[in-house]
Amino acid sequence: MIANKIDESVGVDIEDIGRFRKLDQKNSGVFLKKVYTKNELDYCFWKAVPAQHLAVRFAGKEAVLKALSGLGLSPVDYNTIEIFNNDRGAPQVRFCGHKNFKKLGVKISLSHCRDKALAFVVIKK
Ligand SMILES: CC(C)(COP(=O)(O)OP(=O)(O)OC[C@H]1O[C@@H](n2cnc3c(N)ncnc32)[C@H](O)[C@@H]1OP(=O)(O)O)[C@@H](O)C(=O)NCCC(=O)NCCS
Questions:
Q1: Out of 9-13, 56-60, 74-78, 99-103, which region has the weakest mean confidence (pLDDT)?
Q2: Residue nearest to ligand 1 atom 8, measured at CA
Q3: pTM assigned to the model
Q4: Is 93 in the pocket of ligand 1 (CB under 6 A)?
């Protein structure tokens, strides 16, 4: 009953960057393709330290899933949530192949330091 009236939800996640340091495109392809889109992999592996960008995007996807759950919406595959950067570098979210989710207003903020990556998401119906 109450869930129907909720039209805004938040999600947050923090990741240990160390978990992502061993990932590389040659040996971790299955995991990487399951979690990230091609655009995300291009962005992360173009950077000097891919692990922090991989970790913060993983945190972003988990935060999106938490916010979707708060709205009573079904979870989606990680690699259908794409996090990209606009021309100012600010992160944005788009859903790949989920027509019903196109109208959602999604706001995301990411941050990473030497060993932790954090994401905060707000989704409005
Ligand atoms: C935006 C800014 C505050 C980010 O500070 P930072 O300490 O580098 O940020 P963190 O290390 O905590 O987080 C990095 C994440 O911030 C996000 N980010 C980068 N630029 C951003 C911006 N303009 N707005 C919002 N988020 C931004 C990105 O998601 C980035 O991670 P990613 O590269 O993996 O996607 C800093 O770059 C700044 O002060 N810029 C001022 C100049 C400016 O706005 N330039 C924009 C170019 S036009």
A1: 99-103
A2: 111
A3: 0.94
A4: no
- Three-state secondary-structure class, residue 4: helix
Q: Is 97 in the pocket of ligand 1 (CB under 6 A)?
A: no
Please check whether residue 65 is in contact with residue 75, taking contact to mean a CB–CB distance below 8 angstroms: yes
Residue pair 92/86 in contact by the 8 Å Cβ criterion? yes
Ligand 1 proximity of 114 Cβ (cutoff 6 Å): no
CA of residue 7 to ligand 1 center, whole Å:
28
Interval 110-119: pLDDT, tens: 999 999 999 9
Class of domain 2-124: alpha beta
**CB of 89 closer than 6 A to ligand 1?**
yes
Q: Which two tokens stand for residue 5?
A: 């009236």
